[in-house]
Amino acid sequence: MRAKAPAKVPEIKGSTYLVKLRIDKRTVITVRNKESLKRWMAKYPDATEVF
Question: How far apart are CA 13 and CA 26, in angstroms?
Answer without folding.
Answer: 29
